[in-house]
Amino acid sequence: MWAGSSPGLSGVVAGAVRSVLAGAPSGAEMSVRGQAALIRCREERPWVREGTTTVVASSEGPERWWTFAGLLANADLAARLGSTDFDSLQIRLPADLAGRDPRTVVARSPEPTGTWDRLAGDLKFAECLPLDLRRRAAASRMTDAASIAERLAEPLGRAGLSGAPGGATVWGWGSAC
Question: Of 70, 127, 128, 136, which sits 20 to 30 A from 173 (CA to CA)?
Fold first, then answer.
């Protein structure tokens, strides 16, 4: 049995996923079943817009911020938002952030530092470097600053969903800025 999870997507690949979900051609030859699956994915995510991150509220649970920024970028953003539930495409927002602009919260939050302490200690010749430099070296390997900056600069959309999974209905979409 396979144990574990996928290594996650880079910011570039996650952004390409968003582009295809927003309607761009996939660039791949697809079977009839593959085409049907893509249509279904697009129908289940009608709020996806190219060049826009979106906070989606749902009657099924907490708000989710769909960044399509990649795993490393979302890990950093989630830490700044106080969330531990994220993947390469989205971050579940803590309940106390409901209705707020997550970009503003991130801008006011310090970069996570203690997160990389173990990795900083495992760097080759770590004992020869000051702790601050070890932390910065570790963080540079474990984050995607370019994807973070790109997504924080994009407009933020808001959408609300209702209905059963697979039959979601957008009840609102608007730009929050």
Answer: 70
Q: pTM for this one?
A: 0.81
Q: Are strands 156-162 and 90-92 parallel, antiparallel or unpaired?
A: unpaired
Range of the domain at 104: 15-112+143-175
Rounded distance between C-alpha atoms, residue 8 and residue 136, angstroms: 22
Q: Is residue 119 part of a domain?
A: no
Angstrom CA distances, 26 to 32, 81, 118, stand at 14, 32, 39
Domain membership of residue 39 (yes or no) is: yes
Q: Structurally, how many domains does the chain consist of?
A: 1
Instruction: Tell whether the torsion through CA atoms of 74, 77, 80 and 85 is positive or negative.
Output: negative
